Amino acid sequence: MTQTFSDRLKNVNPKFLSFDSLKTLQVNLGNLCNMACVHCHVSASPSGDKQMSRAVAEKIVAVLRQNPGLTLDLTGGCPEINPQFRYLVEATEPLSLCRIVRSNLTVVTEPGMEWLADFYRQHRLVVFGSLPCYSAENVEKQRGTGVFDKSITALKKLNSLGYGTELELNLVYNPGGPFLPGPQCDLEAAYRKELFENFGILFTNLYTITNAPIGRFREYLEKKGAYETYLKLLADRFNPETAGAIMCRSMISVDWQGQLYNCDFNQVLGLPIRGRDGGVLTIDDLDEAAWTESELELGQHCYCCTAGEGSSCTGSLAA
Fold first, then answer.
1. What is the pLDDT of residue 43?
2. Helix residue spans in 40-83 (DSSP H)
3. 79: domain CATH number?
4. Where are the beta strands (DSSP E) in the chain?
5. Which residues have a Cβ under 8 Å from the Cβ of 178 and sit 6 or more positions away?
6. What is the pTM of this model?
7. How far is it between the farthest Cα atoms of the chain?
8. Are the C-beta atoms of residues 29 and 82 closer than 8 Å to each other?
9. What's the domain count of the chain?
């Protein structure tokens, strides 16, 4: 029987079961997206009906005003097509030293979104662009026909605006099946060579992210009869060197309704942060949620963050 993730973490260091200090506020604006990728853990699509309201967005701005210096990490779905995206970016201009947008890249090429790339540049957003491979065939297996060409078009546009040179443009790789990413440094070197030689594209960093066994990726695994095998792979490849750096020790995730979670994966699984009285905490309760040594909500899916080189929203943990 596989040891629980909590017990495995405890054996490395009991303090790794607890929150450390808040550095990043990750905001998930909802599950609306112009795409429907087969690996998407939030099952986002053009029919997504979970969208953040202005009232919740205003509370997030107020929290950042009270906690200057936090990194703001905007994700989805496709965060750029949520009505609150522009407001959150414009209202937090003086409040956060680093503001990240997690982009599927293709949104830059959508009709009506011609303003977007210039908006990134105007507000000096750090762009994390999803590009699961440098070959069209592998990308389109995960993300659909035509997606690779649209992604390349978007990357060329971003390069023309200084992204990848003077502004930060990070690419994100995730595996196309039930296996772990290869070494991040090797994949980055391959991406640099292939994208520059074939398309003249430059970028800042490549980050590898392990697929979490939830959402559409879990459905994919179950159809292949590979779910239990994948969970065992993650557990068998547990790397104790990654344990202290798991992202949930320094990041809090906010969902479209303003509820708080230790990570975006826990959002999908309905595992919110709970207060001392057992109630679900919201953005109004951030101080309590960010209390040092508060207990983390952990489960077997968390093995995806500590397998191999480890995985976080900013790539591997032991590269």
1. 86
2. 54-66
3. 3.20.20.70
4. 24-28, 71-75, 98-103, 126-130, 169-173, 205-208, 251-254, 260-261
5. 211, 221, 224, 226, 229, 230, 233
6. 0.96
7. 58
8. yes
9. 1
On whether residue 249 sits in a domain, the answer given is yes
- CB count in 10 Å sphere of residue 279: 10
Length of the chain (residues):
319
312 assigned to some structural domain: no
Structural domain contains residue 310: no
Residue 297 has pLDDT above 90, yes or no: yes
313 domain residue, yes or no: no
Section 17-28 average pLDDT = 97
Q: Is the model's pLDDT at 1 over the cut of 80? A: no
Q: 114 has which bridge partners?
A: none
Q: Name which of 230, 27, 183, 203 is nearest 126 in CA terms.
A: 203
Residue 3, φ and ψ in degrees, nearest 5: -65, 145
Pair of tokens at residue 149: 């060409």
pLDDT at 201: 98
Cα distances (angstroms) measured from residue 218 to each of 23, 37, 78, 223, 300:
30, 13, 20, 9, 13
Distance of CA 7 to the CA centre of its chain: 25
CA distance 274 to 258: 13
Residue 288 CB contacts under 8 Å (≥ 6 apart), including other chains: 275, 276, 281, 294
Q: Are 307 and 180 in contact (CB under 8 A)?
A: yes
Q: Report, as an integer, the average pLDDT of 274-283.
A: 95
pLDDT at residue 319, as a whole number = 63
Domain that holds residue 44: 5-305
CA distance 189 to 208: 13
